[in-house]
Design a protein that fits this description.
The chain is mainly beta. The protein has helices at 2-37, 48-51, 72-81, and strands at residues 85-94, 105-115, 121-131, 137-145, 147-154, 158-160, 167-169, 184-190, 198-206, 213-216, 221-224, 231-237, 249-255, 259-262, 281-286, 297-305, 310-319, 328-337.
Length: 345
């Protein structure tokens, strides 16, 4: 009997202890939740879930050696400034006979890129001056930008050659390699040498069956082959050719009592006809299978005609099938000196 009483007392005591321990555990958990959910003075009003993600005060700080992305404005400024490169120019001034000219006053303008107040890129221009030496040479150095333009060349009794290339790029559209040992030639002409010239810009319809026509530049006329004139031309293609389809075609030009000489430089000024190197006729053909086939051909020629009494230059365009017309077209822009001189200015 005493043994049963003892066992029941022991069980009761154990149950009470377990209940006390459970109550203490729940009480501590409640206090912990209230502490976590309490707004933090340092981190704001995050929930318990977000506060669990806040790093402790001893978390690793950013590495100061890592370069952060540049400010957008600064990045744009750097991109604009990258257009500017060192600009150094070496030139040589010569006359119409390639003789050096000294004491020519040269003025050059240099474009430099800059970012304006509205954050839009724009060109700022600076001017530099130079004077040619006894051998005609000069230089312009120590600048930066992307384009140098020779604006003026002044010498008493001389004119700068018109239409000549005098603007030079130094950046993405480079058309110059600065080299003191290979100066850029700049030409001037004696004013007293200016000639009385004949010029014209003509557009003639012709039959593309190969028949020959004569061009008289002095009169500005085209006629079927006959006596006189300066140049013979003919254009040939398949007369059954359809617009929009490829076909074989060709043309031929022939100097009358003279010769022609092709000028491959499409930008050259051509102010002095060469003394030699002429051929009597020039022929051009373009098969339909040619990978560079086209509807037009543009060529430049020097012309010597009338037994050397006439020199000239011609910009020629040939259209074997012009704008769905059944005829071909011969376009020519010309300048002639009928005085026996090779000067074409």
């Amino acid at each position: 009997m005493e043994q049963r009483t003892f066992n029941r007392s022991s069980v009761t005591i154990v149950a009470v202890l377990i209940a006390l321990l459970c109550g203490l555990w729940f009480w501590k958990r409640s206090i912990h939740r209230q502490t976590v959910q309490k707004p933090s003075e340092e981190h704001g009003t995050g929930t318990a879930e977000t506060q669990d993600r806040i790093p402790p005060t001893n978390a690793r700080q950013p590495d100061p050696s890592i370069t952060l992305p540049a400010d957008p404005v600064e990045k744009r400024r750097l991109a604009v400034d990258a257009k500017n490169v060192p600009v150094n120019f070496w030139g040589k001034v010569v006359d119409q006979d390639d003789a050096p000219l000294q004491e020519v006053r040269i003025s050059a303008r240099i474009r430099r890129w800059n970012m304006g107040p509205s954050l839009n890129p724009g060109g700022v221009f600076t001017t530099k001056a130079a004077v040619s030496r006894n051998d005609g040479s000069f230089e312009i150095t120590g600048a930066s930008g992307d384009v140098l333009t020779i604006e003026r060349m002044d010498k008493e009794g001389y004119d700068a050659e018109p239409d000549a290339l005098r603007s030079f790029g130094y950046n993405t559209s480079t058309n110059i390699t600065a080299d003191p040992n290979r100066p850029v030639l700049l030409r001037m002409w004696k004013q007293e040498l200016k000639q009385q010239l004949v010029s014209g810009d003509k557009f003639f319809p012709v039959n593309p069956d190969g028949r020959v026509y004569t061009v008289d530049f002095t009169k500005g006329e085209l006629s079927e082959a006959g006596s006189g004139g300066d140049l013979k031309i003919s254009i040939k293609r398949d007369l059954e050719a359809k617009w929009g389809k490829k076909y074989d075609w060709s043309f031929k030009i022939e100097a009358i009592n003279g010769g022609v000489k092709e000028e491959p430089d499409l930008l050259g000024s051509m102010y002095l006809a060469p003394a030699d190197g002429y051929i009597n006729a020039y022929a051009f053909s373009l098969p339909a299978t040619d990978g560079k086939w086209g509807l037009m051909a543009g060529k430049r020629f020097y012309l010597m005609a009338r037994n050397g009494q006439t020199y000239g230059r011609m910009d020629v365009e040939v259209y074997p099938y012009y704008l769905k017309d059944t005829l071909a077209r011969f376009s020519v822009k010309y300048v002639l000196n009928p005085n026996g001189s090779r000067i074409l200015r």
